[in-house]
Amino acid sequence: MVIMSGTATVLQQFVSGLKSRNEDTRAKSAKDLQHYVTTELRELSQDEATTFYDELNHHIFELVSSSDVNEKKGGILAIVSLIGVEGGNATRISRFANYLRNLLPSSDPVVMEMASKAMGHLSMAGDTFTAEYVEFEVKRALEWLGADRNEGRRHAAVLVLRELAVSAPTFFFQQVQPFFDNIFYAVWDPKQAIREGAVSALRACLILTTQRETKEMQKPQWYKQTFEEAEKGFDETLAKEKGMNRDDRVHGALLILNELVRISSMEGERMREEMEEITQQQLVHDKYCKELMGFGTKPRHITPFTSFQSVQPQQSNALLGLLGYSTPQSFLGFGATPVPAKSSLVESRYCRELMEERFDQVCRWVLKYKTSKNPLIQMTILNLLPRLAAFQPHTFTDQYLSDTMGYLLGCLKKEKERTSAFQALGLLVVAVRTEIHPYLMKILEIIKAALPPKDFAHKRQKTIQVDATVFTCISMLSRAMGPSIQPDIKELLEPMLAVGLSPALTAVLYDLSRQIPQLKKDIQDGLLKMLSLVLMHKPLRHPGMPKGLAHQLASPSLTNIPEASDVGSITLALRTLGSFEFEGHSLTQFVRHCADHFLNSEHKEIRMEAARTCSRLLTPSIHLISGHVVSQTAVQVVADVLSKLLVVGITDPDPDIRYCVLASLDERFDAHLAQAENLQALFVALNDEVFEIRELAICTIGRLSSMNPAFVMPFLRKMLIQILTELEHSGVGRNKEQSARMLGHLVSNAPRLIRPYMEPILKALILKLKDPDPNPGVVISVLATIGELAQVSGLEMRKWMDELFPIIMDMLQDSSSLAKRQVALWTLGQQVASTGYVVEPYRKYPSLLEVLLNFLKTEQNQGIRREAIRVLGLLGALDPYKHKVNIGMIDQSRDASAVSLSESKSNQDSADYSTSEMLVNMGNLPLDEFYPAVAIVTLMRILRDPSLSNHHTMVVQAVTFIFKSLGLKCVQFLPQVMPTFLNVIRVCDASIREVNGRLDS
């Protein structure tokens, strides 16, 4: 077949990309594969799709089994790209679990890191085997830790434990005690990477246990156990593990203490996160500039998946948050040096109490090893001391500040430790606040020495490199001391600006302008002079200032900044210009220059940042226009720049830029976008080749329909007819899905247009739900649109509830698709909230309460659990007695205790009992009869669910085993089992029919 040969060619392209030695090529191929299987593959026949998946699985197996490390990495990325994709999920997930299992341990640490992260994603797939999978992997990892030392296995084990603790906390928590019993074997390992990996897993577990603390629970032993293990590391008399020296043991103990203090002081961690974010931004910028230098003057190609696949616009922010589209994509950008994910900020009450009791002892241990020559110990101490200061600032200041400052000032003189010492000093200063005053002059001297000297500009030396932690230290100093150090900081401004533009400099200047308002004008003037030189290649000239005077007033430290023709400097300058607060300064000349010169740059990065910056810089002019006195200059600037932005938004060859321009034109610009010439440009964007750009365009136009209805409404009516025609009559599933999503945006953003056409729209949507499309994306989009329509139509939706509710109930119980359940839950909430249809659904649909409670019992995603609670609240309070009567738990004609399972319901309905219902009905039975009854009812529920057909064989085997164990006692369960078995035999395939037949024997 032609399609098959075309599919084979596409598959071969994906596989070639995944085998590439280039990291970016592998990541792009994985993203493209994910896009293909969720779009184009769904348009093929079932046989063609199955053949494609079979071939793809074969290639993935070859990749992960290859001896080439790069091919293994490509195989892992392919697995992650397919997790959560609809169709054959259970079988695929099980196969992928085995592939990843066989990759561990590996001789390559990056492969192990990637495989463990993929296992974390696999545990979030929401499949029925998640609990069993997590339990198996955790137990296997703990066995590897407890067994005789095997370096590869230990390293793999700690990586897997860390990822599962983060990704599947509910299931991991069941194994928490064995974790604490075994993790310290790895903490005492002679290899640094294993020790640090083990402590990273310990951190994830401590966060997990902290989140599950309650006031009523007994004091947990985990924190005490962890502290006692740390204590062993400092005990010289304890026997050493073979191959582990004293320094390794002390390093492990200090790492444990670091984690215990971390979860005992939330406020200190918040400050640390802010500081680390600044240094991280600087590292990312430096790496980015190096990459650009490597590419030369050619514009760097960035795949459009970066913007579109990670954030897809949906019908509402609430639904977007619930669905969480960006989960797998964030992993697909994985490289050898990933940006560290933020850990949750938590504080354990019990651990805090423990550490308060042992605070002096911990401080003495830490300071005892400050003279150690081991660099690992030195780095850990520099990490730990500021945490201890933030934990108990008064005690620390009184007893340990003097020793600590002596140690830190000594570290600042050593080249290797200077970066960490500046960071530690900054955090220490902000922890002890004004108590640092006696050491202030020494600190300022060291900072001055790290910055360029005052005569630096005149000597025309090369640009000096200043570490980002120097700037963060200045920032923390201003937070601690406030305006009292204004004179000292003012002296530092010129040397700081002489260093040149950087993310760290921008961050510290922003902080200084907030903490010391007296310096705001100096900071703004200095930064604008620098930006003028970088972007316009001339000194800053305020409106009305003579040209000659501008050159005279230019700071000597800034005139020698090298001409910034490189992409990195211009991009950073544009970003700074758009994000920094320049109150009281006219930026008109900058916004005009950006629109004239940078929106048409050959470099994609510059065009992208210029579009964002122009939209931000127009805000003051827009406020000026909306005031009482209208400035004609401001009107002209807004009109000119907006016109140029819209031209870029519809003509730029790169879809990322077009998307960025439309996304930046938010509600601030509505009054100007509603002008006829601007609307014409937006109408053109509705024909963009990229669907996500068309989505943004229709959202914007729909929003403007209330501002210029005469111009917009006729166009939108035509658009509505076109969308409905496409939805009803298109033979391509992808087109129908996109039409449903466009309709949802139109409903959400143009309610006045939609309200008169509510009935025909709803009829078309319900028809699509009653005759479900094989493409699950169509069903999901249609259901989400109905949720939006409920908000617009309000009480008018009430008469459709009897048709909609059964469909929503079916989708809420669709075990094969997590996405359907998510959207069905959100839509149910929208329906109930908009129509006031409360309490009554519990009577009409007795299983509704159990279905909603199951979301809370089984779902890992916090957004879904929160939405389930919201829906329960919207549905209202329920009379427990009436509910029990409604579901048949109480027979009003007889005593409730006499109602048995077989009497209160028909044989078929009895399988719908929940465990709690059975406990009430069969409370008088002995446990050896009650437990099999619960098991049989649960197994029959699975057997009657067609979406779980791939589990039916295992169900039959389980029932067979139970009946053999019960002997003659199984007779009482035959009325529940036989009708379901016979029904399955009629409709199932030959293999299951054969297994079903075994029960008869």
From TrEMBL:
InterPro entries listed in its UniProt record: ARM-like, ARM-type_fold, DDR_Repair_Kinase, mTOR_dom
Keywords: ATP-binding, Kinase, Nucleotide-binding, Serine/threonine-protein kinase, Transferase
GO cellular component: cytoplasm; nucleus; TORC1 complex; TORC2 complex
GO MF annotation: an example: ATP binding
Enzyme class: transferase
Record EC number: 2.7.11.1
Sequence ranges assigned to domain Serine/threonine-protein kinase mTOR in this UniProt record: 838-996
UniProt xrefs under SUPFAM superfamilies: ARM repeat
Any single biological process term in GO: TORC1 signaling
Pfam family, one: mTOR_dom
Record's catalysed reaction(s): L-threonyl-[protein] + ATP = O-phospho-L-threonyl-[protein] + ADP + H(+)
Family: Belongs to the PI3/PI4-kinase family.
PANTHER family in alphabetical order: ATAXIA TELANGIECTASIA MUTATED ATM -RELATED (PTHR11139), SERINE_THREONINE-PROTEIN KINASE MTOR (PTHR11139:SF9)
Name recorded for this polypeptide: Serine/threonine-protein kinase TOR
Originating species: Poecilia reticulata (Guppy)
Organism lineage string: Eukaryota, Metazoa, Chordata, Craniata, Vertebrata
